[in-house]
Amino acid sequence: MRHPFLVTLCLTGAVALSACGDSKDDSVERAIQNVNAVDETNLSDVMLTVADPNEAVSYFQRTLKDNPDRIDLQRGVAISLVRAKRYTEAVPAWQKVVKHKDSTDVDRVDMADAMIRAGDWDGAEKVLDAIPPTHETFKRYRLEAMIADSNQEWRKADSYYETAVGLTTRPSGVLNNWGYSKLSRGDYADAERLFGDAIRQDQSLFTAKNNMVLARGAQRKYTLPVIPMVQTERAQLLHTLALSAIKQGDTETGKTLLREAIETHPQHFEAAVRSLRALEEGSAS
């Protein structure tokens, strides 16, 4: 008479154990998924920053095949293509991103950046014009300044550069760009000032140092500015100043500067030696 009761009890216990087993399996599965999500996020961050750009492109493209609607992976492809300097491929990748329902104005600015790098200045201008003026970021105004420069809209370019400088804590690059814009217009004194501002913000920015010397040379200031420089940089800047002097017809000054550059350089300065030899052979003949 007790057997039915025992069978029922055993079955109930089995069901309970089974339920417990299912619950544990579900918990383990969720935990694994959470760990995988964290790992994937960390890996994506690595791919977007320190990984080889081409490897990053392959990673995001491969992952995107299994998750074609994920905008973060679409962005990963586009960003990595820009990092890899594959600009022609980056533009359609960004176009795919901005068509996504979760795309933002930041995505559109990044697409405009890729278009400029690919040489499509008109397309980039149209993209930026379609972005609301309330979207005020450093990158947006830096691109606006570059486009205004390309259109020779100097007043607009200056306004955009000034705004961009105020929107970043690291303005050296945009100050250098602004200075180069002034240099190309023939506004040498203002260009020299802006290059000086860029160097004060980043003393390692050799491009700004070289541009500053070009601006000084264009004003026939044939002395190096008082800025931080190592011996090799000093020699290279003297070479730039020499070429600037020669270009303006001040050949003897150019020769003197070339000799100083050769003496200053800690190693053999082939470019300066070649320039000086060409000048001396030309004057001899």
UniProtKB/TrEMBL annotation:
Coiled coil: none annotated. SMART domains: TPR (SM00028). InterPro entries: TPR-like_helical_dom_sf (IPR011990), TPR_rpt (IPR019734). It holds the Pfam family TPR_6. This is Tetratricopeptide repeat protein. It comes from Shimia litoralis. The lineage of its organism: Bacteria, Pseudomonadati, Pseudomonadota, Alphaproteobacteria, Rhodobacterales.
